[in-house]
Design a protein that fits this description.
single chain, 306 residues, D-Maltodextrin-Binding Protein, domain 2, 3 domains, 44% helix
């Protein structure tokens, strides 16, 4: 019954303007949006003005050096992003991906702590095999990640292994044993008892302060003495270098972070499981050629380097 009105409304909209909306919403800056869209800033401003007139809302207002979405823009954004992602998947689903020619930008999600370990190696590899492909690093929390993957705003994610539902696909990327970082003031052998008696610095972004090694210790009926919580391993490693605190962390990352610090890297004296990182993607992207190619690159890189 409402179909003629719906078609009339749709016919008045320039659907190309929604791509402009998507980029401005993500970047919150008209200058950066113009660069990404390969348009001049006046052209982006003109496109936004046309969309404002068609929607009947300012959509974005000035906020410092950038712009901020209005309440209506916040309401529209998820649907617009999902619709554009579905359209991209429909168009590209049957197309081949040529890494030597395609100018594709992928979004790879990972925790901030992982970026120094993973991103430089990934970019070095891709520069060699796909010089025009770009990778954007993001950090979306797990609670929002499935929606971001399904909507196509994130292509792949690297996360600690955890149960998922059928909407997400996953493959093990790497397993890294835990080690213990100790400062110059800590001498001698690290035994189980010394580990439990020592004071520790723990790294977690969780509000409750629970991290992987504490959960593993709890499964053994053990607990350690955490003196300080940090959000980043670099802060924790610098604290370790100043005293007798111990830091438990994945071995590969510890080796990278310890360059120039001079802390000792000691074997973990308890039988704690290694940290397992998985690669996640949406089932909607399972057969998409570009996503398949990037998954293969990451899995091969992990096999050879990580």
């Amino acid at each position: 019954m409402n179909q003629p009105h719906e078609w009339s409304t749709l016919s008045r909209l320039d659907l190309n303007l929604f791509r402009v909306f998507e980029v401005i919403y993500r970047e919150r800056n008209l200058t950066r949006s113009a660069v990404i869209l390969h348009l001049s800033q006046p052209a982006v401003s003109h496109a936004l003005a046309r969309l404002r007139a068609q929607i009947g809302d300012p959509l974005f207002v000035r906020d410092g050096r950038g712009v901020a979405p209005t309440p209506l823009a916040e309401q529209l954004a998820p649907s617009i992003q999902e619709a554009l992602s579905n359209l991209r998947r429909s168009v590209s689903g049957g197309q081949a991906f040529d890494p030597q020619r395609d100018k594709r930008s992928f979004t790879l999600n990972m925790a901030e702590q992982l970026e120094p370990l993973v991103l430089p190696a990934v970019l070095t590899q891709l520069q060699r095999v796909a010089p025009q492909v770009q990778v954007r690093s993001s950090c979306v929390h797990w609670a929002e990640l499935q929606l971001e993957l399904a909507a196509g705003r994130v292509d792949l994610a690297i996360e600690i292994a955890r149960p998922t539902d059928a909407e997400l696909r996953q493959r093990q990327l790497l397993r890294d044993p835990l080690c213990v970082m100790a400062g110059p003031a800590f001498s001698g052998e690290l035994t189980t008892q010394r580990y439990l008696d020592a004071e520790h610095v723990a790294v977690t972004s969780r509000r409750r302060g629970i991290c992987v090694e504490d959960l593993a210790l709890a499964n053994l009926g053990l607990a350690r003495r955490v003196r300080q919580h940090c959000q980043h391993y670099l802060s924790a490693a610098l604290l370790v270098a100043q005293g007798e605190l111990l830091l438990s962390m994945p071995r590969r990352y510890a080796e990278l972070l310890n360059r120039g610090l001079g802390n000792r890297l000691l074997p973990m004296p308890l039988d704690l499981p290694p940290v397992t990182l998985n690669l996640y993607w949406s089932r909607h992207a399972d057969a998409e050629a570009g996503n398949q190619w990037l998954r293969g690159q990451l899995l091969e890189l992990a096999r050879l380097q990580f």
